[in-house]
Amino acid sequence: MSPELKQIFKPSPILTPIQRSYCPGCTHGVIHRLVAECLEELQLQEKTVLVIPVGCSTLAVDYFELDTIQSAHGRAPAVATGVKRSNPDLFVMTYQGDGDLASIGTAEIVHAANRGEKITTIFVNNGIYGMTGGQMAPTTLLGWKTETSPYGRDSNREGNPIRISEMLSQLNGPAYIARTAVNSPKNVLGTKRAIKKAFTAQMKGLGFSLVEILSTCPTNWGLSPVQSLKRIDEETMPYYPLGEFKVAEGL
User: What pLDDT, on the 0 to 100 scale, is given for residue 3?
Assistant: First the structure.
């Protein structure tokens, strides 16, 4: 007789059991799992409010068993600020893409961070507008071709890619700022550690926290899932180095 099989892993109950609609090779699903695991392990599910804006991140409303608010494009930090200030006992987080956070939402994220709002932002950076068809984003790397930069991004024409984590880390308000990736098992584990640290910063009331996660967009990059993971290693990470950029005392 074969030995009895023992289940050693199961999805977090914070994730809904429905099939995801992300493109093959998209790493939003990996990030969702890590966020859910951290919320579960820190026992935050019953007090969490998730604020999502417009873009691929909007789909998260169907995938988390959480109280969720959808904001206008780029305004998630402003909405999260209102929720947290009106009920400080809640755990409030935003889940945003680079086209949303680093473009139309630049003012909201900068001022929320500068004020030290006690919210947490999960910032998914794949260097392109995903849901709306692959336009150039503020984080698109030089030379990358998109629908709106068909000859490749040129610093003289479109400016340089914005390093959000480095920029926000210069402010006094943030308690924790880190950049991670999900293109390898090692980096996935590092991302989970960073998310848990960011959540802990809010739980301790230390200030604003943000984890920037380098992600893939195989469809709009025109690459296979495997090629997309390799691109993060070879192209994205050299410009967007991984690491912790600000860590408050007590974390």
Answer: 67
